[in-house]
């Protein structure tokens, strides 16, 4: 095994160095601790020493070149060996950076030679972990300032473990399935043997696509940190990518990486929309038990538009674009647990009152973490509104496997020129809509027409009656 | 070379008449001298052949001293011996044995002990330098030059306190005469008129260095005038001469007139030890001394009065050789000690039982839950403990500097002098080594001394006496003695009296096997533990804290003891095991209250006794909390708490949830200035910080 000559890491701040000169010719014999290479950081110069004796095989690195730390710049071995490049992956001196290790561990295919990261754990934590069959690498350390896994960390980890039947646990252990990524269908969300079997099935590549009824083949995404050597930084808190956060990270990453995103912005005159909503609110709030909001009205308009433009109510399967029978509208909601998207089924078929009521019930459940299994699945299109946070326009990420998402900005009074007042601006309530669509599913012009229709109805809400 | 003139027939007759000796007596002396010689020559041969391992300091040439001196004693008197002690042990043991069989058995046990066999006097644990027979009055040999002078003083003090007319013969060499213990011992023995006869065996060389080269005065005996006692030089090659001088000294001692210093001029034929080639002396000098050989001298003495002829002498020689052969056969046949024996005889068995431990646990609960119980100070608790034990057992007495009328430097013996008088509460000279050693000797002779060393900083002056003699004697002597003594001392910082009066040196004392170390933190603990220490049969180093004497706490009026080796959980908690003792218990409890406000629940364990250590209580706590903080006022370097940590590591490693942390004194001499002292000694803040660190 060749001895690697790498750029040492000089403390926390040095990320790269400049090579000054090689002190030993390629192929020459070097002794242990012989100086091989002179390098320069922004502070000073250093010599890189041989960690063992042998013949030096220099890599393609020349004086003047800037090289990141831990890059292997040469190897020392037998006279006939060749330089094999690489990077020192396991930074043992940075135990506060376990993401790097997790990234390495999670992507064994891409980094098969990575040395295992030393895991610091108290004896008590090791004892408990062994008894509970917990892999210490999966536990977030908090002891010793975030360096060492202590007992409370293992207990915290165990608490996040979903409840599962003993049979399911056994099956998952055998198949190497992470129970935290399996949805439980048993009583109280308990993971059953069937759930694990489903998960195992999902892991296997589909033998043949099953169009029409089959959901799109799940796209498995590597964790976001893959391949990134995280620089040494002081981490004050680590939020494990588990539960809602894990799902968000995975879905959003997958979406951005796999969709062909196009964003259309359209400014809409919402003056009538606002007026209509105010009148409606004044009339029905008492009767309905809630005040209809912009989101309700907008959802109604969008649901109508989706029925009118069915190519927007579609998704991409492995070999086809599938137009969907139902208009199931997802409404993005900010909760303490993170972003959740309750789905109102057949939104186009429901009255405004029905829609509003159902939506509110779902939000209530989502906020409490009591969502029913169908509450958060099966959407065909999503509306996301950041107007309440003074956002005017933005480019949301498509909620796969949907084809598009509508971002709604803040309604703001603006001076605009109107056909009836071409000479002087009038004050109108304006709103920006951003439609992000997947160009694989729909082209720009049809998507624009869809958005244009929405604009029309927002500007002239009575058109809903004509839909 | 001193004038060694053989006795004339008249002189021999006169000595026999004066001492009322019989032919049998002289035959016995001659046999003993010859037996010692045979033993030593045999050992020399075994050493040369490599059969015998270890050091053997041979007595050949000096036999007349031991035989003559022991011959002057009664069977109930005492001797103390030296590293060159085979002669003392044989003269004494042969005298104590009353039948030929018993004498052979004694000789066998000597030989076996030198060979390290289980059938030896000390079961093979002592060897050549530590032969003892305490039951018959041989308080044993020591490997430390001058080590047994204070012990002899203590044994003599015990006789005075018990009102007997027994005496103690203390053998020592010319080398020991230049040790500090020589001066301290002769001073204390003469000051108290103790019945001890100091027999200096001046063989002219301290290992290789001639006496004349390292000493101004030609005679050790001349120093007697410094102590106001008789001093006499005698011809150490003639047993009759030695016997006569010692007999006069013994008579004086029995009359209560005090000690005598007798210097016997003598010569060791072999080198200091086996590895000594005697390059420092001439062969001519050796020949001169050998002309005055103790065997020849005694043989001639007897022949002059017609008590011995050549045939009889020849027979005697044969008997001696046969006796030696039998002893060698016994020693060779005697098994090596069972390896399991290595751990036995270190400590005398505890006198307390599980029932005592349970009773104390219940009493402690009661004390804690009785707000109306009387409150007395730590000092008062100590006075009460000593007083109750002195009333209970007449063998208990107190000795030390200023313990009498003054009442102790910190008032821990106040009032006892008035109640018990000057011979139960004894003001000693400022002689720490001899205070310690006298406690050892008195304890071995049947008393239960409480010796006070004013500051623990001064205990190193007494370390050889307390640790080498007191703590080890039981083991070295094969479990055949007990040393029931308490050394009371006090330590700790807080009075701004700097580096010689503020240390916490318990780690020096926990280091030695054979001695217990007790460090109470409350008046209740102080009283119960001191009473238990006094009743215990082991040496106990009882270290009080100078800042605790005035602290008050509940102490029951009833008679109670706290068994040694039982820790006390002063505050239960679930997050951290904080182990400490002495004054640091109070700081740890303060720290625990501060930490409680932060939601950190600290369990404070007061060890109370460091040895024996109640590791079970510590381990049970660590298994509960997973976190360990040790707090000690001693220097961090080789602090006793390190030992506790090592044991936790051994016994509960898998239960630890964080690295163990210790809070100790800085590794600097304790400084005078308060601001520096506060830096050097653990304060409550440092303890709080350490606790925060382990839960981080």
Topology:
The complex is a heterodimer of chains A (467) and B (696).
Chain A lengths: L2 E4 L9 E7 L6 E2 L4 E6 L4 E5 L4 E5 L7 E3 L2 E7 L8 E2 L10 H9 L16 H10 L10 H4 L4 H10 L5 H10 L17 H11 L39 H16 L2 E9 L1 H18 L5 H15 L5 E3 L4 E3 L5 E3 L1 E3 L2 E3 L2 E2 L7 H17 L12 E5 L18 E5 L3 E7 L2 E18 L5 H16 L8
Chain B lengths: L8 H10 L4 H27 L13 H9 L6 E3 L5 H11 L3 H15 L34 H14 L5 E6 L6 H12 L4 E7 L2 E2 L2 E2 H4 L16 E5 L3 H16 L5 E6 L17 H9 L2 H11 L5 H24 L20 H15 L6 E3 H15 L3 E5 L15 H5 L4 E3 L4 H13 L3 E6 L9 H9 L1 H4 L9 E6 L14 H5 L5 E3 L4 H13 L4 E6 L6 E3 L13 E4 L4 E5 L3 H13 L5 E5 L2 E3 L3 H11 L2 E8 L4 H13 L8 E5 L8 H7 L3 H12 L1
Helix pairs in contact in B: 2-3, 2-4, 2-11, 2-12, 3-4, 3-9, 4-5, 5-12, 6-7, 6-16, 14-20, 16-17, 21-25, 22-23
Give the key terms:
heterodimer; A: 467 residues; alpha+beta; OB fold (Dihydrolipoamide Acetyltransferase, E2P); Chloramphenicol Acetyltransferase; 3 domains; seven-stranded mixed sheet; five-stranded antiparallel sheet; 11 helices; 20 strands; 29% helix; 22% strand; B: 696 residues; alpha/beta; Rossmann fold; five-stranded parallel sheet; 25 helices; 21 strands; 14% strand; elongated
Give a written overview of the molecule:
The complex is a heterodimer of chains A (467) and B (696). In chain A, strands 10, 13, 16, 17, 18, 19 and 20 form a seven-stranded mixed β-sheet that branches. In chain A, strands 1, 3, 6, 8 and 9 form a five-stranded antiparallel β-sheet that branches. A four-stranded antiparallel β-sheet of chain A has the order 5-4-2-7, with no helix packed on it. Chain A folds into three domains: 85 residues, OB fold (Dihydrolipoamide Acetyltransferase, E2P), CATH 2.40.50; 124 residues, no CATH class; 219 residues, Chloramphenicol Acetyltransferase (2-Layer Sandwich), CATH 3.30.559.10. With 467 residues, chain A is an alpha+beta fold. About 10% of the residues of chain A have low confidence. Chain A contains eleven helices and 20 strands. In chain A, strand 19 and strand 20 form a beta hairpin. Chain B is an alpha/beta fold and 696 residues long. Chain B has three domains: 326 residues, Thiamin diphosphate (ThDP)-binding fold, Pyr/PP domains (Rossmann fold); 201 residues, 3-Layer(aba) Sandwich (Rossmann fold); 128 residues, Rossmann fold. Chain B contains 25 helices and 21 strands. A seven-stranded mixed β-sheet of chain B has the order 10-9-11-12-14-13-19, sandwiched between helices. A five-stranded parallel β-sheet of chain B has the order 1-2-3-7-6, with helices on both faces. In chain B, strand 9, helix 15 and strand 10 form a beta-alpha-beta unit. Chains A and B meet through helix 2 and helix 3 of A and loops of B.
């Amino acid at each position: 095994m060749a001895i690697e000559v790498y750029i040492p890491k000089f403390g926390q701040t040095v990320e790269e160095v400049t090579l000054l000169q090689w002190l030993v010719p390629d192929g020459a014999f070097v002794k242990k601790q012989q100086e091989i290479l002179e390098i320069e950081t922004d502070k000073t110069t250093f010599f890189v020493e041989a960690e063992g004796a042998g013949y030096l095989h220099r890599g393609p690195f020349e004086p003047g070149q800037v090289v990141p730390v831990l890059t292997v710049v040469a190897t020392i071995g037998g006279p006939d060996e060749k330089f094999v490049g690489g990077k020192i992956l396991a930074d043992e001196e940075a135990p506060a950076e376990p993401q790097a290790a997790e990234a390495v561990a999670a992507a064994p295919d891409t980094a098969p030679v990575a040395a295992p990261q030393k895991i610091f754990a108290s004896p008590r934590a090791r004892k408990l972990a062994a008894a509970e069959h917990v892999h210490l690498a999966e536990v977030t350390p908090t002891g010793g300032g975030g360096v060492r896994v202590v007992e409370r960390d293992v207990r915290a980890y165990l608490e996040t473990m979903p409840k599962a039947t003993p049979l399911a646990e056994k099956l998952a252990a055998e198949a190497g399935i992470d129970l935290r990524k399996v949805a439980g269908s048993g009583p109280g969300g308990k993971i059953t043997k069937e759930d694990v079997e489903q998960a195992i099935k999902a892991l296997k590549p589909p033998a043949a696509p099953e169009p029409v009824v089959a959901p799109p083949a799940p796209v498995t995404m590597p964790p976001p940190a893959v391949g990134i050597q995280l620089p040494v930084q002081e981490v004050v808190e680590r939020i494990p990518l588990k539960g809602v956060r894990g799902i968000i990270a995975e879905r959003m990453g997958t979406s951005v990486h796999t969709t062909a995103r196009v964003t259309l912005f359209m400014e809409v005159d919402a003056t009538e929309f606002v007026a209509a909503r105010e009148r409606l609110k004044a009339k029905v709030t008492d009767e309905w038990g809630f005040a209809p909001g912009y989101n309700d009205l907008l959802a109604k308009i969008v649901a109508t538009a989706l029925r009118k433009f069915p190519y927007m109510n579609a998704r991409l399967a492995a070999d086809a674009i599938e137009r969907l029978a139902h208009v199931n509208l997802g409404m993005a909601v900010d909760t303490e647990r993170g972003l959740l998207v309750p789905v109102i089924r057949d939104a186009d078929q429901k009255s405004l009152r029905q829609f509003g009521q159902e939506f509110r019930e779902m939000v209530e459940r989502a906020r409490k973490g009591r969502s029913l299994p169908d509450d958060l699945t099966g959407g065909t299109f999503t509306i996301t509104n950041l107007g309440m946070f003074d956002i005017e326009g933005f480019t949301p990420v498509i909620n796969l496997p949907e084809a598009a998402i509508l971002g709604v900005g803040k309604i703001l009074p603006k001076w605009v020129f109107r056909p009836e007042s071409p000479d002087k601006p009038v004050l109108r309530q304006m709103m920006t809509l951003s439609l992000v669509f997947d160009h694989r599913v729909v082209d720009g012009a049809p998507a624009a027409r869809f958005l244009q229709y929405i604009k029309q109805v927002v500007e002239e809400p009575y058109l809903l009656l004509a839909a | 070379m001193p004038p060694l003139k053989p006795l004339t027939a008249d002189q021999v007759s006169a000595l026999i008449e004066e001492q009322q000796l019989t032919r049998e007596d002289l035959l016995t002396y001659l046999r003993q001298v010859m037996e010692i010689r045979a033993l030593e020559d045999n050992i020399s041969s075994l050493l040369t052949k490599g059969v015998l391992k270890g050091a053997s300091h041979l007595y050949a040439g000096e036999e007349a001293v031991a035989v003559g001196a022991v011959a002057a004693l009664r069977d109930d008197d005492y001797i103390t011996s030296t590293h060159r002690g085979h002669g003392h042990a044989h003269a004494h043991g042969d005298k104590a044995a009353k039948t030929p069989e018993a004498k052979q058995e004694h000789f066998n046990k000597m030989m076996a002990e030198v060979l390290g066999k289980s059938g030896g006097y000390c079961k093979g644990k002592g060897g050549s330098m530590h032969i003892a027979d305490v039951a018959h009055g041989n308080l044993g040999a020591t490997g430390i030059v001058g080590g047994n002078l204070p012990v002899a003083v203590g044994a003599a003090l015990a006789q005075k306190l018990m009102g007997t007319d027994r005496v103690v013969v203390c053998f020592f060499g010319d080398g020991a005469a230049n040790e500090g213990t020589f001066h301290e011992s002769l001073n204390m023995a003469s000051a108290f008129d103790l019945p001890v006869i100091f027999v200096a065996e001046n063989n002219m060389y301290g290992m290789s260095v001639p006496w004349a080269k390292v000493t101004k005065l030609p005679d050790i005996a001349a120093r007697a005038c410094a102590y106001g006692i008789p001093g006499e030089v005698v011809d150490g090659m003639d047993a009759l001469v030695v016997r006569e001088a010692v007999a006069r000294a013994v008579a004086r001692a029995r009359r209560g007139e005090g000690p005598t210093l007798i210097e016997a001029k003598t010569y060791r034929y072999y080198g200091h030890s086996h590895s000594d080639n005697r390059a420092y002396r001439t062969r001519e000098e050796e020949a001169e001394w050998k002309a005055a050989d103790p065997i020849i001298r005694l043989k001639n003495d007897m022949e002059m009065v017609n008590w011995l002829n050549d045939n009889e002498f020849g027979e005697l020689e044969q008997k001696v050789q046969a006796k030696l052969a039998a002893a060698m056969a016994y020693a060779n046949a005697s098994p090596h000690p069972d390896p399991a024996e290595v751990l036995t005889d270190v400590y005398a068995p505890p006198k307390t039982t599980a029932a005592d431990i349970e009773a104390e646990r219940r009493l402690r609960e009661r004390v804690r839950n009785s707000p109306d119980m009387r409150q007395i100070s730590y000092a008062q608790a100590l006075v009460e403990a000593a007083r109750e034990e002195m009333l209970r057992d007449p063998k208990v007495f107190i000795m030390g500097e200023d313990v009498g009328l003054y009442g102790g430097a910190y008032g821990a013996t106040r009032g006892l002098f008035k109640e018990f008088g000057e011979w139960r509460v004894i003001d000693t000279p400022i002689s720490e080594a001899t205070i310690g050693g006298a406690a050892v000797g008195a304890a071995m002779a049947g008393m239960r001394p409480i010796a006070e060393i004013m500051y623990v900083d001064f205990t190193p002056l007494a370390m050889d006496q307390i640790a080498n003699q007191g703590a080890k004697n039981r083991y070295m002597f094969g479990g055949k003695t007990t040393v029931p003594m308490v050394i009371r001392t006090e330590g700790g910082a807080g009075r701004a009296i700097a580096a010689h009066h503020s240390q916490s040196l318990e780690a020096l004392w926990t280091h030695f096997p054979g001695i217990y170390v007790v460090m109470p933190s409350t008046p209740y603990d102080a009283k119960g533990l001191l009473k238990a220490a006094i009743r215990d049969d082991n040496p106990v180093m009882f270290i009080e804290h100078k800042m605790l004497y005035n602290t008050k706490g509940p102490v029951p009026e009833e008679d109670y003891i706290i068994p040694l080796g039982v820790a006390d959980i002063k505050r239960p908690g679930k997050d951290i095991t904080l182990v400490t003792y002495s004054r640091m218990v109070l700081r740890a409890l303060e720290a625990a209250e501060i930490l409680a406000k932060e939601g950190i629940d600290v369990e404070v364990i007061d060890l109370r006794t460091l040895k024996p250590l109640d590791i079970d209580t510590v381990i049970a706590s660590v298994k509960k909390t997973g976190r360990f903080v040790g707090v000690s006022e001693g220097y961090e370097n080789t602090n006793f708490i390190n030992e506790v940590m090592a044991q936790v590591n051994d016994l509960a490693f898998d239960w630890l949830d964080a690295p163990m942390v210790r809070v100790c004194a800085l590794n600097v001499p304790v400084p005078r200035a308060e601001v520096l002292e506060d830096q050097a000694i653990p304060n409550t803040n440092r303890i709080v910080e350490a606790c925060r660190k382990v839960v981080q």
